[in-house]
Amino acid sequence: QVQLVESGGGLVQAGVSLRLSCAASGRAFSFYAMGWFRQAPGKEREFVAAIGRSGVMTDYADSVKGRFTISRDNAKNTVYLQMNSLKPEDTGVYYCAADWSSNGVPSKMRTAYDYWGQGTQVTVSS
User: Fold this and answer.
1) Three-state secondary structure along the chain?
2) Cα 93 to Cα 106: distance, rounded to the nearest angstrom
3) How many CB atoms sit inside 10 A of residue 57's CB?
4) Of 99, 2, 114, 92, nearest in space to 45 by CA
5) Per-residue pLDDT tens digits for 103-121
6) What are the residues facing 3 on neighbouring strands?
7) pLDDT tens digits for 52-102?
8) What is the pLDDT of residue 101?
9) Model pLDDT, residue 104
């Protein structure tokens, strides 16, 4: 079992940056691949970024490549999402997720993730 708590969301103007954090507690954080997903009103939850156990392997949605960076600090049990050049279409609730069963390889599949945080709202105004 692992508990995930996201923070760092807010209301910002287009073009600025935000950094989201996800603090994990419980079973060994370094054994999990981690992911960020987001959900806009009326839309399905979609993949944003994922990172493997060691932080070497990463994967991104095409819509955020070159703007967002996922990273992790296993000593602090925390995963981050640095979001630059934010756009109004980045608006949504951002969820952190932990994947225990995929052997540490980052996955784009929502169903691969075993644990989810409660989400943090990001609103980007034009």
Assistant:
1) CEEEEEECCEEEECCCCEEEEEEEEECCHHHCEEEEEEECCCCCCEEEEEECCCCCCEEECCCCCCCEEEEEECCCCEEEEEECCCCHHHCEEEEEEEECCCCCCCCCCHHHCCEECCCEEEEEEC
2) 21
3) 13
4) 92
5) 888 999 999 999 999 999 9
6) 25
7) 999 999 999 999 999 999 999 999 999 999 999 999 999 999 999 999 887
8) 80
9) 80
Q: Which two tokens stand for residue 29?
A: 């954080």
- Token duo for residue 118: 């409660």
Copy the structure tokens of residue 18. 């935000």
| Both tokens assigned to 50 | 């994922």
